[in-house]
Design goal:
It is a single chain. By secondary structure, the chain is an alpha/beta fold. The chain folds into two domains: 281 residues, 3-Layer(aba) Sandwich (Rossmann fold); 99 residues, no CATH class. 51% of the residues lie in helices and 15% in strands. The chain has 17 helices and ten strands. The strands form two sheets. Strands 3-4-5-2-6-7-8-9 form an eight-stranded mixed β-sheet, with helices on both faces. A two-stranded parallel sheet has the order 1-10. α12 links the parallel β8 and β9. It is globular and about 80 Å long. It starts with a strand and ends with a strand.
Amino acid sequence: MRIMGGVVRRRVVFHVAGYDPSPPDAMRRRFARELRRFEETWASQATVTDADPAADASWRVAAAGPNWQVETDFRLVRWDDIIAEAGRRSMARRVPLGLFAFADFAFHALVRYLRANWRYALFFLFPLLLFCLFGAAALFAGKLIAVATGSALLGIFAAVVILAVLMRWPGEKLYLPLLFDDWIFSRGYVRSRHGALESRLDRIAKDIVALAQQGAADEILIVGHSLGAALAIDLLDRALLLDPDLGAHGTRIGLVSVGSSILKIGLHARAARFRSAVQRVAAAGGIFWGDYQALSDVMNFYKKDPVATMGLPTTGRPVVRMVRFRHMLDPAIYARMRYDPYRMHCQFVSGNNRRAAYDYFMLVCGPLAAEDQAHLPEGPVSALAADGSLIIDTAR
C-alpha cells in the first residue's frame, strides 16, 4: 500500500474548538487524559508536555510506534476568553439578545436547515422549545401564586424569579444559557466583525504563513470542531490573502473540519462574506480539506458536502467522510453516552478505544498526513499493523 504524503515526523496543529468556555489548562488536561486511549488503541507511546509558559495555549506531544516517531507542536486558537466574557451576561440581557438572534436565524436560515438536515433543524429549535417550556411553567406557577395571594404583582414577580431559577437549573445542566450565547455570537459573526477575534485570527494567519514558508514541519494541520470549523475556514482564508499559493510550496497544509457548524453559518442568507471565504478555501489547490460527519451527532449536517449545499462551485474539496461512533468505542461506553448529545458531539475530539477510520489523535499525533488518512479506505486502520507499526510504502 502506498501513500502520497510520505511519513510525517513533525507536525504543527492549530486546533479551533467549538463554542466552549474551557480555558487552556482544562483543554490540556482533557487532551492528556484522552491521549492515554490513543496509546492503548494504537499500541503506541505518547507523552505531552505542560503548557508552554510563554504561550499558555500550546504544548508539545511526542508519539511513537515500532517504526515511526512524530513530534507535534499543538496550539489552541484561543477564543475561550471571548466565550467566557459572554457567559457573564445577566439573564436580563441574555434572554432578549438570544431570542432576537434566534429570530434572525429562524427568518434567514431555518428553512435551509430543514432542507439540508431536519435533525440539525430540531437541534436548532431545541433551546427555544426548552425556554418556552420553562416560560410556561413559570407563568403557571406565577398565576397560582397570584390567585392564592390575591396580588397580581406578586404573581408576576414570582414568575420572573421562577424563570430565572429554571434558566440556572436545570437550564445550565441542559446548556440553555450557553446555547443562547451561541446564537448571539453566531448572529454577530454573520452580520458584523468581532474586533478581538478578528485581530487574533489575523495574527495566527501570519504565523501559519511564516511556518509554511520556513518548511520546518512536514504538515501544518488546522482542525476545526463544531463552530470552530467556521473560524478555521476564516483563519485559512486570511492566510490565503497573505499567500495565495499557501500549501503549494513549503509545508503542506491540511484542514480537517469535524462535527462542523460550517453550514450553520453558511446557510444564513446574510452570510455572503463567509460563503466567499469558503469558496476561496475550497478552491485553494495547495490546501487539503477533509470533513468528517456522524449521523449520531445531531449538531452537524450529516451526508452534506458543505460547499455544494451552499450552492458554491464544487472543487472536489472537502473530501467528506462518514464517522460511526459505534465503531470507535466499546459497546458499554457507547451505550452510556449515546443519549447525551453534547458528549456524542465531543467524541470528534476525544480518544477512541477501538481502531477506526477516524481518530482525532491519529490525525494530530500519528505518522500519516491528514490527506492520506482521509483517502485510505479505512483511514489509519489501513496503514498500521496490530503492533502499531506502519505497513505502507511512501511515494516519495
